[in-house]
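Subgroup meeting minutes
Present: P.N., E.W., G.H.
Scribe: E.W.

1. P.N. recapped why we're keeping a running log of single-chain structure predictions: easier to compare across weeks, and new members can see raw inputs and outputs side by side.
2. G.H. added today's entry (41 aa).
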Amino acid sequence: MTKSEALKEIDGWKKISHRLMKDLKELDFYGKHTNEREPTT
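Output recorded in log:
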C-alpha cells in the first residue's frame, strides 16, 4: 500500500466515524427526550 492510498483510507474512515458520531449524538438526543416523557421501568 502506498502512502497516498493509506491516507485516502484514513480519510475515508474519518468521514465514516464522523457520520457515526453524528448519528450517535442524534440518537442520544432523541433517547433523552423520549425518556423524559415516558420513564422506562
